[in-house]
Write a structure and sequence with these properties.
There is one protein chain. By secondary structure, this protein is an alpha+beta fold. It has 2 helices and 6 strands; from the N terminus they run βββαβαββ. The strands form 2 sheets. The chain has a 4-stranded mixed β-sheet.
Length: 142
């Protein structure tokens, strides 16, 4: 049985192949058609492709109902090099949104704790995600 440092076994373990992309960078703006013209903001084409691949990877592993209780998520991002290096905080948003879209997690607000790391020099860029049941830490001030 594989556990993390807290002795917990992951409820879900997902590997998303391909270079992790960031939702915030490179958005595209289009004018909508119709009588009420307004601007439509879409994510970059690179992010849209990554999201589609991520959804396929998640759906392959989905079994059972969505997680509807507080959870802790571990995310590891592997890159070939530091070209267009992204902030860890920006990298977290895309996978969290995908987990909710494919109903692995009922709502990404249920993610109570996130551990995220990025690594460079990988021959196979990817994102590895593990989801654990959240165990509230004992606080000294209680």
């Amino acid at each position: 049985m594989i556990t993390n440092g807290l002795g917990l076994t992951p409820l879900v373990k997902i590997t998303i192949p391909g270079r992790p992309r960031v939702l915030k960078n490179g958005k595209r703006i289009f004018n909508s058609r119709g009588s009420k013209r307004r601007k439509v903001v879409l994510p970059s084409s690179q992010y849209a492709q990554w999201e589609a691949n991520a959804m396929v990877a998640c759906l392959r592993l989905k079994s059972g109902p969505a997680i509807d209780f507080p959870c802790r998520v571990s995310m590891k991002f592997y890159f070939e090099n530091r070209q267009a290096e992204a902030d860890v905080s920006n990298l977290i948003e895309g996978p969290a949104d995908v987990l909710q879209k494919v109903r692995i997690i009922d709502n990404d607000r249920l993610i109570m704790h996130v551990e995220a790391e990025k690594f460079f020099g990988s021959a196979s860029p990817r994102a590895e995600i593990e989801i654990f049941r959240y165990v509230e830490p004992k606080r000294a001030d209680k």
